[in-house]
What we know:
Elements lengths: L1 H4 L21 E8 L3 H12 L4 E4 L13 E3 H10 L2 H7 L1 E3 L1 E6 L2 E7 L11 E3 L2 H17 L4 E4 L3 E7 L4 E6 L5 E10 L6 H5 L5 E4 L4 E7 L9 E5 L8 E7 L3 E7 L6 H4 L2 H12 L6 E8 L2 E4 L4 E2 L2 E3 L5 E2 L7 H20 L9 H25 L4 H16 L27 E2 L17 E2 L2 E2 H5 L3 E6 L7 E3 L2 E8 L7 H7 L6 E5 L5 E5 L4 H11 L4
Parallel strand pairs: 1-2, 1-11, 2-8, 5-14, 11-20, 22-29, 25-27
Antiparallel strand pairs: 3-7, 4-7, 5-6, 9-10, 10-11, 12-18, 13-16, 13-17, 14-15, 15-16, 18-21, 19-20, 23-24, 25-28, 26-27, 28-29
Helix pairs in contact: 2-5, 2-9, 3-4, 9-10
Amino acid sequence: MFEDRYSLAFKLYPYKRSADQDADTVVRHPVVVVGGGPIGLATALDLGRQGVPVVLLDDHEGVGMGSRAICFAKRTLDIADRWGCGTAMLDKGVVWNVGRVFQDDRQVFEFNLQPEEGHANPAFINLQQPFFEKFIFEQICEEQRKGAPIEIRGKNRVDHVASFDDHVVLEVATPEGPYTLEAEWVVGCDGASSPLRGMLGLGFEGRVFEDSFLIADIKMTSDDFPTERWFWFEPYFKSGASTLLHKQPDDIWRVDFQIGWDVDRAEELKEENIRRRLDAMLGGDVEYEIVWSSIYTFQCRRMEKFRHGRVLFAGDSAHQVSPFGARGANSGIQDVDNLGWKLGLVVRGIAPEQLLDTYDDERIFAADENILNSTRATEFITPKSKVSHTFRNAVLKLAEQHAFARPMVNSGRLSVPCVYDASPLNGPDDLPDGPEQTRVGSSCKDAPLGDGFLLQQLGDDFAVLALNTEVPTSIQVGDIPVRTVAVATSDESFGALSERYLGAAKSAVYLIRPDQHVAGRWSTFDETAVHAATLKACGRD
């Protein structure tokens, strides 16, 4: 069974009594994270690596069963590289670049997501969520060995929360009875149903789409299906109104059937009925084992605000999208990437707490972008009127022969990083003829540099990237250290770097935030301008 096969990834942090349970007075911690899924673990890892003491409370004792999220984008892998666990994910994951779209038994078109040459990571990997969480947890253990102040408490369920101006009080249930602790800051990462959100009486607004989807993860060895993303509209095998097929590590395949809204879920989840759909798709002579199954509905929703005083929400607890497009876990990791450095600066007294309001500004903008793309995909996949169904099928028919129609085919616009064009943290964009892809607000694009890649050298602090212009070997903006990376793009080996950061310009200076988004750029180094933009990016202008 699935739980046995991945037992190493299942029970990672069994319950043990903490010192707080025996303390004479209630203990206050700088940061408490509620929820031990991928977003909660990643939040603890990010903060702990900065030296910020963090306690993670999870009502379970490790990774849950089922593959759930499986598609992890390049941006997520780039972030995981900074945390130290990206290589393990890449080594275990299944790299894929090609997707094929079918209607009935005809291929409509295919696409290739492989980015241009010169990136450390591929466009996507498929990796079961338990492995993704396990690799983050293992990196937490490595950071703990180095002295990172991270504590994970399994079987610690938050039953009540009260938020005040300068702290939060949490009542926690354990197998040995309840106890109370306090936190200066709480980060809610407890999933779409978020008990923490409910305790605070906070809403979750948006749309629930009236359709049901059956997921079956199966183990099989087959040469009939390559390592690609295959999506069928109205498939010839009649197992559902649409079907999605993905390969995962260890010969596990994800099959996703659209089965309609008015269904008997208990009946559909019976093994014989799941096999009936799978046999029609795969053929009766294909041997496979069902290792996990579930039924879900599409929901595109978010909280009105992600920050509520001393409590912040990230991942599915803050926003929810349909799984087509791989925007759930990937956007959650970008939440962590955005929140982590800001909360770290606030806790360490380097930035004012108002910096956390920009987490709302930037990640609500990103959530709305993801919800828009997810909603459009859902409406294309599940047309709800005769007119929209006719339009959808006309687009599919045209796409077989005509390239102009292919961008309109929407089986899930795959996750890309958000550009914070209107962020209040943005500094000047004073690089005439600079490339659009690395404008202020965008995430940095990777490129070969020396024996490695650019993103590896930028690190996870503020950085200045200088191309073909002089820059100090080190920069100190008050109490904020800024590393420098200076490059003279004198030969063809810097072609990708020049294309992505110079464009038609002869020289360039980029100020880059700890989450590797561009905070400002100029033609040459100006100490006053860089200092001002750094302070602005920290909320101290």
